[in-house]
Amino acid sequence: MVKRVSLATVSCPVGRALDAIGDWWSLLIVRDAFDGLRRFSEFQKNLGIAKGILTTRLRNLVDLGVLEMVPASDGSAYQDYVLTKKGRELFLVVVSLRQWGEDYCFKRDEPHSALVDTTSGRPVGRLELRARDGRALTSSDTTVRKLDPQRTRNAKAARPSR
Amino acid sequence: MVKRVSLATVSCPVGRALDAIGDWWSLLIVRDAFDGLRRFSEFQKNLGIAKGILTTRLRNLVDLGVLEMVPASDGSAYQDYVLTKKGRELFLVVVSLRQWGEDYCFKRDEPHSALVDTTSGRPVGRLELRARDGRALTSSDTTVRKLDPQRTRNAKAARPSR
DNA sequence: CAGTATCCCCCCTGATACTG
DNA sequence: CAGTATCAGGGGGGATACTG
Fold first, then answer.
1. Nearest CB to B113: which of A11, A46, A130?
2. Which chain D nucleotides are covered by protein, judged by CB under 7 A?
3. How far from the centroid of its chain's Cα atoms is residue A47's Cα?
4. Number of alpha helices (DSSP H) and beta strands (DSSP E) in chain A
5. Does any strand D atom come closer than 7 Å to the Cβ of A142?
6. Contact A18/B5, CB-based, under 8 Å?
7. Which residues lie closer than 8 Å to A156 by C-beta, 6 or more apart?
8. pLDDT tens, B49-80?
9. Which terminus of chain B has fewer CB atoms gathered within 10 Å of its CB, N or C?
10. Total-model pTM
11. Tell me, what's the pLDDT at A3?
12. Eight-state DSSP code of residue A135
């Protein structure tokens, strides 16, 4: 996928992560994969995405190593798209978005889907960030230690100035 | 910001969250805000974003209630853009992206910025999701309990079919 | 400094039709 | 079903100039 600017080489991990899966559809596909969808048509129907776009996105995610193609579980001639380890480790990204969405993108009492612990069937707890010694941390307890003064993006990399 | 398709009304919190802050620049702006940037020019220089785009994005984030404008701390005639509570609670989204980026978007020994606990100056721990009873959970321990069979997006909401 | 205004291009997106 | 091919459009995105 060609982009205007590339964040693939910036020193900030957030930038690189967004470069990989920060586009409009990718995380939704990953979310659906967590929900058990595997087939082209399942993604297409569930997302309402155009086939061409879906093809591009799936290929991109496969190239990135987030999804992999495996022989279809139902024995058909096609492939299933399943999460790799790299893809499964996007779990907390999806969960963090889910929790924020639940907290701030719904009106009171407006129903939404919920993430449940399969063992107990009860909703999961809140995500937490802790210090090495176990103290819970919020944004005000942390700083980014920058390792170099490099700019956030690699200036002019994407397009020669006219 | 006008989009082709709107996810603002889907029942999945992930979709709604992405509808709000899932575009190319918004989370980068939020990340910079966590890093202490407040001024228009700071964002503009650090992101390398065009001024017009930045204006649009900042306004969108203010409209969403993620950022708010406050009188400039240096007494100048302009405004500072600071995170609201809603914005600060995107912290874990940014952290999850950061940790995934650190794990999968850098070569071995390639330097990257790190999030440190200000008190100890040491890198923070890993994000964790736990069940209500305290057990750590991974993606395979959870399921989404869907509350209605509504489609992921509101079909045809954005554009009448031709 | 902090935007606004304008121009323009390219790519993303979506729709439709087609193939094995 | 699982894509590929093709086309049209619209808007995101960048550069530049301008304003208070």
1. A11
2. 1-7, 11-17
3. 15
4. 6, 5
5. no
6. no
7. none
8. 999 999 999 999 999 999 999 999 887 889 99
9. C
10. 0.90
11. 55
12. -
Residue with the larger pLDDT of the pair A7 and B100: B100
Residue A143 CB neighbours (<10 A): 16
Contact A87, A67 (CB under 8 A): yes
Whole-number Å distance between alpha carbons of B96 and A137:
14
CB contact under 8 A, A22 and B17: no
Considering only residues 42-71 of protein chain B, which place a Cβ less than 7 A from any atom of strand D? 49-53
- Tens of pLDDT, residue by residue over B107-162, are 988 999 999 999 999 999 999 999 999 999 999 999 999 864 444 443 333 333 22
Q: Amino acid letter at B153?
A: R
Residue among B55, B63, B3 nearest B29 (CA): B55
Question: What are A128's strand-pairing partners?
Answer: B128
Work out the minimum CA distance from A81 to partner chain B, whole angstroms: 17
Residue to test with chain B: of A105, A106, A116, A142, most B Cβ within 10 A: A105
Q: 3-state DSSP call for residue A28?
A: helix
Residues A106, A111: Cα–Cα separation, whole Å: 8
- Please state, in angstroms and rounded to a whole number, the distance separating the CA atoms of residues B32 and B77: 22
Burial environment of residue A42 by CB neighbours within 10 A (0 to 12, 13 to 18, 19 or more): middle
Residue A138 neighbours by CB under 8 Å, 6+ apart: A129, B88, B91
- Contact criterion met (CB below 8 Å) for A29 and A43: yes
Query: Residue B130 has which token pair?
Result: 């736990």
How many residues are given for chain A? 162
